[in-house]
Amino acid sequence: MSKKEVIVLQDILGTNKKIAAEIREKTERRGILTVNFLSSPGAGKTALLEKIAERLKPQAKMAVIEGDIETERDAERIRAKGVPAWQITTGGACHLEAKMIGKILPEVDPDVDFLFIENVGNLVCPASYDLGERLRCVLLSTPEGDDKPKKYPKAFTTSDAMILTKADLLPHLPFDVEKAKKEALELNPKLKIFLTSALTGRGLDELIDFFLASRRELTRHA
Amino acid sequence: MHELSIISCLFETLLEKAREHKTRKITLVKLKVGKLAGVVPEMLESAFDMYKKGTIAEQAKLLIEEVPLKIRCRACSTQIEKDNYIFVCPACSSTDLEILQGTELFLEKIELEID
């Protein structure tokens, strides 16, 4: 019996990253802009997606993958808008992984322009898992407080855009929009920031323009 | 709490390496975990202890080396170790920074017994 040391030097999440890279390659080649939505539970991811569906559907084809621990509810809400939606129920897992997206991808119409993925509501764990998205958006709702970016840095440092939601509640809350923006930009100076309300429609045109422009940029390079 | 899922990925690699080197016992597992890797070392330890029962790593010791966050400014080439997440160069205030280390989640090495 002898002891042996084996140098491995391998990324523990390497398998997830590899699958994510395959998904990115496949979707981008088809001109599909994949967007991963991250936020804590109740920040308004599904409500925002419903509004995006209303505004995007007349001009583009989209599909949605919903991630939740349990229930088919979110996918039903999206289907009610006439948009194909798949529900992943993780049964307890706090985040989506690339292999879950990879399983659904063959069922998604290859001609869609946009594929939105709504991650499990959690501001921590989903940040560590690349799903093969081109854009990652972190949502922060005004009732959660303007101090969240620094408390949950990874979600903000790995995102391309921060979408502040529930702007209609601002008159009733001590939420300081400038402070939230400043905190987020210190973490990630390249972050695009949107102030939105699914209820009043505030900021949604700018957000839709951002998605359309991102897709134009993708198809130019594809 | 995705540490258990990370440990489950780790075990896939451990079992693969064990087969490759024909060992029945892994005695040490060493990880490198960046400060911005998004995981809590203590929770990785608990998840490892929970997961290892009944496996070839049942008696393995887990060593975690925490890697500090280090950045380089692309504008003035300043390199600095950071203890906060303010991504602004302290020398020239540029925001064009490159992360040199601190996001890794690596299995560095293992020790095993062979016949």
Q: What would you say this structure looks like, in words?
A:
The complex is a heterodimer of chains A (222) and B (115). By secondary structure, chain A is α/β, with parallel strands linked by helices. Chain A has a single domain, classed as P-loop containing nucleotide triphosphate hydrolases (Rossmann fold, 3-Layer(aba) Sandwich), CATH 3.40.50.300. In chain A, 36% of the residues lie in helices and 22% in strands. Chain A has eight helices and eight strands. Chain A has helices at 14-29, 45-56, 73-79, 98-104, 148-151, 153-157, 177-187, 204-221, and strands spanning 2-11, 33-38, 62-68, 85-89, 114-118, 135-141, 161-165, 192-195. Chain A has a seven-stranded parallel beta sheet, with helices on both faces. In chain A, helix 7 (177-187) links the parallel strand 7 and strand 8 (192-195). Chain A is globular, with a radius of gyration of 18 Å. The N and C termini of chain A lie far apart (56 Å). The model of chain A has no long low-confidence stretch (mean pLDDT 96). Chain B is of the alpha+beta class. Chain B has a domain at 3-68 and 101-113: hypothetical protein PF0899 fold. Chain B has a three-stranded mixed beta sheet, covered by helices on one side. In chain B, helix 1 crosses helix 2 (41-52). The radius of gyration of chain B is 18 Å and the shape is elongated. Chain B starts with a helix and ends with a strand. The relative contact order of chain B is 0.26. Chains A and B meet through strand 1 and helix 6 of A and helix 1 and strand 6 of B. Strand 1 (2-11) of chain A pairs antiparallel with strand 6 (105-114) of chain B.
